[in-house]
Amino acid sequence: APRERDRHQTSRSKQARSKQASRRTSSAMVSTTPLVVLCFLLVLACSNANDCVSNGYGCLPESQCPKEARVNYGGCSTVCCDFSKLTGCKSKGGECNPLDRSCKELESESGSCPKGQKCCVWV
């Protein structure tokens, strides 16, 4: 009878270990599910993040991109802007500086600067 009892206890402890392992596996699956979902959402967000730039446009603050130059692409925290439709020194990546300042001048846009200044681009 003692052997049979030992065998029965061994069988019971194997079943208990099996249930514990099963619970660990299912809890591991449950705890990785949010991680998988998070990774999926990150990949989805990153795939849209450069829509504007990858289509040849750029991101600008709303105040610097007129409505007629805005395009409907995502990926900007500001607005997606068609740079080819912009005019002016600042929109071409330059800044207005005094005429006596040494710089690479963007002559085509210097007219958009105030009198006595020119459009400088830094290379």
Provide keyphrases for this structure.
single chain; 123 residues; alpha+beta; ligand-binding face of the semaphorins, domain 2; Anthopleurin-A; 3 domains; 3-stranded antiparallel β-sheet; two-stranded antiparallel ribbon; 14% strand; rod-shaped
Q: What's the arrangement of secondary structure elements?
A:
Blueprint: H1 2-49, H2 51-54, E1 58-60, E2 79-81, E3 95-98, E4 104-105, H3 107-110, E5 117-121
Antiparallel strand pairs: 1-2, 3-5, 4-5
Average pLDDT works out at 76
User: Structural class from helices and strands?
Assistant: alpha+beta
- Give the N-terminus to C-terminus distance in angstroms: 93 Å
Quick one: biggest sheet?
3 strands, antiparallel
Per the principal axes of the C-alpha atoms, what is the gross shape? rod-shaped
Number of domains: 3
Q: Any idea what the radius of gyration is?
A: 33 Å
Count of extended strands:
5
**SSE pattern:** HHEEEEHE
Q: State which percent range the strand residues make up.
A: 5-15%
What topology, given as strand order, has the largest sheet? 3-5-4
- Helical residues, percent: 40-55%
What is the overall number of helices? 3
Protein name: Carboxypeptidase inhibitor
Region (Disordered): 1-29
Keywords: Signal
Biased composition (Basic residues): 10-22
